[in-house]
Amino acid sequence: MFKALQLRQDDAGKTQAEIVQLEDHHLPQGNVTVEVQYSSLNYKDGLAVTGTGKIIRDFPMVPGIDFVGTVTDSEDPRYQSGDAVILTGWGVGERHWGGMSQRARVQGDWLVPLPQGMSPEQAMAIGTAGLTAMLCVQALEQAGVRPEQGPILVTGASGGVGSVAVTLLAKAGFEVHAITGREDNADWLKGLGAHTVLPRSQFEGQSRPLDKALWAGAVDTVGGEILAKVLSQMAYDGAVAACGLAASFSLPTTVMPFILRGVKLLGVDSVMCPFERRQAAWNRLLKDLGTQHYDAFSTVASLEEVPQLAQQIIQGQVRGRVLIKP
Ligand code: NDP
After folding, report:
1. Is any atom of ligand 1 closer than 6 Å to the C-beta of 157?
2. Are residues 77 and 148 both part of a single domain?
3. How many A from CA of 283 to the centre of ligand 1?
4. In a domain, 286, yes or no
5. Would strands 15-22 and 32-41 be described as parallel, antiparallel, or unpaired?
6. Do 87 and 167 fall within a single domain?
7. Which residues neighbour 278 within 8 Å (Cβ) at sequence distance 6 or greater?
8. 119 within a domain of the structure (yes/no)
9. Does the CB atom of residue 182 touch ligand 1 within 6 A?
10. Same domain, yes or no: 19 and 108
11. Does residue 281 lie in a domain region?
12. How many domains are there within the chain?
């Protein structure tokens, strides 16, 4: 028997979350079984557990879009019993049972070996959000954004992706300006490496097609009017890595930043990101965050706390990263 958080839909179509005891024969199909050490709470888990977004179509579902754990059974020649592995994305916790469980069964193709020297706690302190932050940093670097070109902006800075992005960019030598709606997090964000903390209200509302050119790069986790404002303030040749929609999936912008300043808008997706790029990102995370005090941006919670935390994350009330220990 093992314990899992399971989502069901009641007769009114409302998503209900409960802790259940399951047996191995309940696990979905897959060729690798993993004893889960940690999952983590991501924005998408918040949408799934609260039923806010149409994330889950097949019930019952075990949520948890990422996990780290130890292989117990494998029919995949690349993985043996005892191997430490990470999973993020591929629709796990959405279409395939996920990590908020003591046990998971998945496809070997979806796994990445835990980098040597990284602990399971560190891996899920990073999790999907941190991996996405790294993919954003790498996208900006590939677009030619360098610290000497000017300051860089991070939106939704107190969230999971935002807080890891602030940490990574500061470590890479950028002057990081963090946008937050929670100014009481200012000292915490500065502790992660932010140079200044800007109020979100300054970026809300309709923006002009072009504003004063301020930023060499940006990581955007929120979309909507805020992303439009950020685009209008990009310096010549600047680039924005866009990965999120915490404010809105809309983008009320114009072509002006692109055609008059050569601004680049770089889409970042972690879910279907190919293996080689994922592995490179995890290795870089190990290198860049090696000596980081991960508890500066992460806390640990139990499966029982997930329904409450899910409400909090979609209301923008969770700070940094939350590991879930099943
Ligand atoms: P979090 O909830 O941890 O962070 C989001 C942050 O955005 C909040 O902490 C808050 O920061 C800010 N925010 C929340 N609501 C609003 C609002 N209405 N208007 C403006 N800002 C708001 O989520 P994650 O960091 O886990 O994810 C961030 C986004 O990235 C989500 O949309 C998620 O779906 C997406 N994502 C995409 C991935 C991909 O592969 N493309 C992978 C992972 C995440 P503050 O209080 O500091 O303002």
Report:
1. yes
2. no
3. 24
4. no
5. unpaired
6. no
7. 88, 112, 131, 270
8. no
9. yes
10. yes
11. no
12. 2
pLDDT per residue rounded down to tens, the chain (326 residues): 999 999 999 999 999 999 999 999 999 999 999 999 999 999 999 999 999 988 998 999 999 999 999 999 999 999 999 999 999 999 999 999 999 999 999 999 999 999 999 999 999 999 999 999 999 999 999 999 999 999 999 999 999 999 999 999 999 999 999 999 999 999 999 999 999 999 999 999 999 999 999 999 999 999 999 999 999 999 999 999 999 999 999 999 999 999 999 999 999 999 999 999 999 999 999 999 987 778 889 999 999 999 999 999 999 999 999 999 99
Query: Phi/psi at 43 (nearest 5 deg)?
Result: -55, -40
Q: How far apart are CA 232 and CA 201, in angstroms?
A: 16
Instruction: Indicate whether 282 belongs to any domain.
Output: no
Question: Is the CB–ligand 1 distance for residue 100 below 6 Å?
Answer: no
**Domain span including residue 171:** 129-267
Whether 323 is in the pocket of ligand 1, judged by its Cβ within 6 Å, is: no
Both tokens assigned to 279: 């592995």
What ligand 1 atom has the least distance to the C-alpha of 157? 47
